[in-house]
Amino acid sequence: MRPKIAVLIFLAIVSSGSVAQTISELTQRELNREDQLERIERQREMTLARREVEVQRRQIKELRADIQSQRVALQRQSGKAQMISPARVQSPTTAMQ
C-alpha cells in the first residue's frame, strides 16, 4: 500500500505542477489580451482625436475664408464710401472757384 501512496503523492505533485503551469499560462494569456485591448483602445482614441483635429482644421480654414471675404466686402464698402464722402465731393461754391 505504501508504493501506491508514493505513486499518488508523485502524481499529485506532477499534476499540481502542470495545473500551476496551466494557470500561469492562462493568466499570461489574459494579461496579453488585456494589453492588446488597451492598445486597441488607445489606437481608437488616437484615430478619433486625429479626425477631430482634421474637422477643426477644416473649420478654421472655413472661418479664415469667411473673415477674408468679409474684409474684402468691407474694403469695397469703405472704398465706395470714400468715393462719395463729403471730403471728396466738391460743394457748389468750391467748384465755382
What do these coordinates show?
- The model has no long low-confidence stretch (mean pLDDT 82).
- The protein has one domain.
- It has helices at residues 2-83, 92-96.
- By secondary structure, it is an all-alpha fold.
Give a topology summary.
Blueprint: H1 2-83, H2 92-96
Gist of the model:
With 97 residues, the protein is mainly alpha-helical. The chain has helices at residues 2-83, 92-96.
Which structural traits does this protein have?
97 residues, mainly alpha, 2 helices, rod-shaped
Shape designation: rod-shaped
N-to-C CA distance: 142 Å
Number of structural domains: 1
Low-confidence spans:
none
Alpha-carbon Rg, integer? 42 Å
- This entry's quaternary arrangement is single chain
N to C succession of SSEs: HH
Count every helix, treating DSSP H or I runs of 4 or more residues as helices: 2
Share of helix, binned: over 70%
Total beta-strand segments: 0
Average the pLDDT over all residues and give the rounded result. Answer: 82
Strand fraction equals: under 5%
Could you describe the largest sheet, including whether it forms a barrel? none
Going by helix content, strand content and strand pairing, the class is: mainly alpha
